[in-house]
Amino acid sequence: MKFTVESDVGRKRVINEDRAAFLERPDSLKLALLADGMGGHNAGDVASEMAIQEMTNYFLQKEFQNPSIEEKRQWMEESIANINEKIYNYSLENEHCKGMGTTFIAVLIDKNHCLIGHIGDSRVYHFTSNSVDLITRDHSYVNILVDSGEISEEEAQNHPQKNLIVKALGTEPTIEPDFYELTLKEYSYLLICSDGLSNKISTDEMAAIITYPMPIAEKGRKLVQLANDSGGEDNISLILLMMTEEEV
């Protein structure tokens, strides 16, 4: 598996409240993590940093022995619940962090199988040579309106409250992530990104860069550059993974 990680402050923000990481254990289990923090003065980066560090610790310390999908999901669910509680309690105990929270994506990769835990409006896309699929569904106000039939998918794209999320890690005492499963095929790509990227670049523009023959690190840099060229109003973070032939 090839991968690249990018995180950029963007052109309008002073602080980067995004965090992203890619981890691999000696047993070849891999974990991709992305968090987009929010809330309070300087608190968004506290929430996202806590989320990534805590999940990293859980992943590296966990003893897995050929875990089933259910075992992996249970581990991820329990880990996210514990992290949520820690961030929530920290925000109560520290006035400058009151109300902080973060989006969160964890992708546990075992060979070519991916288990995805998702909270908020950061996204996971799956690209092949001729298709693109948005795997996650934003926990957003506009998606509630779409689900209830009040607005269309097209109207949601330009809705004034498009960025209002209804679920974040650490803002409530408990959390229920969404879970997805995906099998990565040979030469397919997984893109994990914050809304600083997905709000500025269309899926066609993403696909044009991701499927172009150039090194994967350059693909990551080109995606960030295009988001900045399109305004760069927010922090921009991504993890791009490619499943290579020898992995399958």
Automatic annotation (TrEMBL):
<dbReference type="InterPro" id="IPR015655">
    <property type="entry name" value="PP2C"/>
</dbReference>
<feature type="domain" description="PPM-type phosphatase">
    <location>
        <begin position="2"/>
        <end position="243"/>
    </location>
</feature>
<keyword id="KW-0904">Protein phosphatase</keyword>
<dbReference type="InterPro" id="IPR001932">
    <property type="entry name" value="PPM-type_phosphatase-like_dom"/>
</dbReference>
<keyword id="KW-0378">Hydrolase</keyword>
<dbReference type="InterPro" id="IPR036457">
    <property type="entry name" value="PPM-type-like_dom_sf"/>
</dbReference>
<dbReference type="GO" id="GO:0004722">
    <property type="term" value="F:protein serine/threonine phosphatase activity"/>
</dbReference>
<keyword id="KW-0464">Manganese</keyword>
<keyword id="KW-0479">Metal-binding</keyword>
<dbReference type="GO" id="GO:0046872">
    <property type="term" value="F:metal ion binding"/>
</dbReference>
<protein>
    <recommendedName>
        <fullName>protein-serine/threonine phosphatase</fullName>
        <ecNumber>3.1.3.16</ecNumber>
    </recommendedName>
</protein>
<dbReference type="Pfam" id="PF13672">
    <property type="entry name" value="PP2C_2"/>
</dbReference>
